[in-house]
Amino acid sequence: MNSSYNQTRGFGSPADPPMPLFKRVTGNFTGTTDEILQWAACKWGIDEDIVRAQAAKESWWTQTNVGDNGESFGIMQDRQPFMAWAFNNGAGDARTSTAYNVDASLAVRRSCFEGNETWLNTPDRGRDYAAGDIWGCVGMWFSGRWYTQPAVDYIAAVQDYLKNKVWLTNDFLKYTG
Asked: Quick check: pTM over 0.90?
């Protein structure tokens, strides 16, 4: 079901990203959905099974998925109001390219992991933000906060998908073909 989106390369680095790290986002890859998830995981230094589990939680690996009342798009549910730099309304953006969608979302995860998202210590949080916490960054992706209850619940759901390797189950494989 992702075939055409998997064969669409990204449009290249964003012109004016909010973080210098995001200039590395290109989406310059084609392959199967799983190959794209592996490529981006390797590029950004994030465990590929965590990426698989999170993609399953976000969209059941469906690039055409739209969520958050029309604000989030693709396999990783890149949220346009907060990631305008990843949407250029043309070919190869976070809506039309699986590789670009995953590349952009994992750049955000990597930025969080490296300690660049210090604003997370400003709003409500369950604990103080610090670099090096991949699970905190996974929760932040969902809730926009650091270890608040919605983030903790989301982390638990992704960890459950990871533990059960949901992407290898018959139900998942039947759906994704």
From this structure: yes
